[in-house]
Hints:
Layout: H1 26-33, H2 36-48, E1 52-53, H3 63-75, E2 79-84, E3 87-92, H4 94-100, H5 104-124
Antiparallel strand pairs: 1-3, 2-3
Amino acid sequence: MQPQTPAPPPSTSRALEHPVRDAIRLEDVLHALSDPMRLRVVRTLAREARELACSDIELPVSKSTTTHHFRVLRECGVINQIYRGTAKMNALRREDLDALFPGLLDTVLLAADRQDLVAGGSAGSGR
């Protein structure tokens, strides 16, 4: 009897699909940024300016809902996700977004910051 060749090890690559730059659509990006939880993710990634694990970005929603928000951001081209070991790392696709929609991301982030200031100021003046 001839010795059997062992089966190749299972693939450990868990590549996630992302749209190429030219496939990123403005309406999809705006839809993704319109949700407060997804905007929180984007603001955190923009502020940190580095890759963060999903667990590094706290959202006051269930794990499955958090996963959904990250998937929406990835599928519309706002973030890039890659597995590093067991962690799913996230990075803002700032270069792609700035090339396609100049000023959009900075304008949205600035507007969100201003909205927070107004909300914070009005909350304390309701006496």
